[in-house]
Design a protein that fits this description.
Layout: E1 8-13, E2 27-34, E3 47-50, H1 98-120, E4 135-139, E5 146-149, E6 152-155, E7 157-160, E8 164-167, H2 172-188, H3 199-216, H4 220-230, E9 242-243, E10 253-254, H5 271-296, H6 302-311, H7 317-355, H8 364-379, H9 384-393
Parallel strand pairs: 3-4, 4-6
Antiparallel strand pairs: 1-2, 5-6, 7-8, 9-10
Bound molecules: zinc ion.
Zinc ion binds at residues 177, 181, 205, 208, 413.
Length: 434
């Protein structure tokens, strides 16, 4: 049988973590690399996945009094790597095995990197590329967090009471968020502890969430699920705005939230919270562009848009608008789906263009200005008014955030190994706050 000249490598990925109340099937996706070019691990020239037997200490931990850190590569023993099938694909692995987890972690990372290299329209080089050619993707079941740092991404898991253990290696949103950080560092640069503004940390968490959220909309089944459950009314409680969803009642962060920067004028304690107003402004803009795109497809009238705008933030919004969305979904599901894909790619391209304009000294005002400039470049001002409206509604660009009110804790990603450089060039941002 003749093989096509360029066949992309296939993986099975879960758009949402399995093992919860709803049944979630994995979806077969393709990464950009040619079938047969990805080696055991999986491994390629940018990254490799490993599942150590007993790696209990995270990278970045000090291992002696000279400040030397534990750093990749891992030299200890590992589970057998995931091997490709005879055609070079990784879809044959059995769920519940270390090999499936390793392939899932690698597949998610590669999938997100491919998507964002598409939005940037150029390759993204790791910020640690001078020292480590490839990122080590490590599965550490006893680590109760997920993080990335200089040359690595470490993925743990989480104990959920009634549902048991959830490995983050099967959680696309968690991995996508970490890849988001890994993408933003080389584009914007690492912060200088002496000069960094605290807005940087809020921005970073928000940007990582948006990278994960936009990427999750590249699963065909996620698009279908989202439209099935909302009929296109994205402000309704839905799966899209639960990032890193762990169980039905527990969600790490919500993209469609009510927070504004005015909520932080007295100060803040957690950069994830500080990122939420920006995430919400971007999410609102995504929804507005989706509505506009539906208008272009002839799915909604100007009158419906006006009713939607008038009811924004009011209690009747969901019930009144749901009727409109139900009718459109029933009659023109395919076009609605296409409009959502358009909105997804417009926001993805605007975000990539925005990231490329920022520096590690950024403030939220710089982010607002960069977003407006990026929109102009990408869409010629078509969404300028709604973008500015959504930013102003959250105080982004207008409001000065207050000081950090407490020392970073273990949940603080930004003040962790992420910003540490290997060897003597240690950067622990918390020192600047003392
Ligand atoms: Zn983060």
């Amino acid at each position: 049988m003749n093989r096509p000249r360029y066949e992309r490598t296939r993986f099975l990925l879960f758009p949402r973590p399995p093992g919860q109340e709803e049944l979630v099937e994995p979806e077969e996706i393709q990464v950009s690399l040619q079938a047969g070019s990805i080696g055991p691990g999986p491994a390629d020239d940018r990254m490799y996945a490993i599942y150590p037997h007993d790696k209990l200490v995270t990278y970045g931990t000090e291992i002696n009094r000279n400040g030397e850190q534990f750093s990749p590569p891992w030299h200890g023993s590992i589970h057998e790597p995931a091997l490709p099938d005879e055609n070079g694909h990784f879809t044959h692995l059995e769920l519940g095995t270390p090999q499936f987890e390793a392939a899932h972690l690698y597949g998610c990372t590669r999938f997100v990197l491919d998507i964002w290299e598409g939005y940037f329209d150029q390759p993204i080089h790791w910020h640690f590329g001078d020292i480590y050619e490839r990122m080590e993707l490590v599965i550490m079941p006893r680590f109760t967090n997920a993080t990335m740092g200089f040359g690595f991404m470490e993925i743990g898991g989480y104990d959920i009471d009634e549902n048991g253990y959830q490995p983050f290696s099967l959680n696309f949103d968690v991995i996508g968020h970490e890849v988001g950080h890994s993408i933003i560092y080389p584009i914007i640069g690492l912060p200088d502890p002496e000069r960094v503004h605290h807005d940087y940390y809020g921005f970073h968490e928000s940007a990582a969430d948006m990278v994960a959220l936009i990427s999750s909309l590249h699963f065909e089944s996620a698009l279908d699920h989202l439209l099935e459950t909302t009929h296109g009314n994205l402000y309704a409680l839905n799966s899209l705005n639960r990032i890193g969803k762990l169980s039905k009642n527990e969600q790490i962060r919500i993209a469609s939230n009510e927070l504004t920067l005015w909520d932080f004028t007295d100060g803040w304690t957690d950069e994830h919270d500080l990122g939420q107003p920006l995430t919400a402004a971007i999410f609102d803009t995504l929804v507005d562009i989706f509505h506009d795109s539906m208008k272009d497809w002839g799915l909604v009238t100007e009158e419906i848009i006006e009713i939607s705008d008038a009811l924004e933030d009011q209690d009747e919004y969901l019930s009144v608008m749901q009727d409109f969305f139900d009718q459109i979904y029933d009659a023109q599901w395919g076009q609605m789906r296409q409009a959502l894909i358009e909105a997804r790619d417009i926001i993805g391209t605007i975000l990539a263009t925005t990231f490329a304009k920022l520096t590690p000294q950024l403030t939220y005002k710089d982010v607002a200005n960069a977003l407006v400039l990026a929109e102009q470049e990408v869409c010629n001002g078509a969404y300028r008014t709604i973008l500015i409206h959504n930013l102003k509604k959250r105080g982004i660009g207008d409001v000065m955030v207050g000081p950090r009110l407490s020392e970073p804790d273990q949940n603080s990603h930004a003040f962790s190994v992420r910003t540490q450089l290997p060897g003597g060039k240690r950067r622990r941002c918390r020192h600047t706050r003392r």
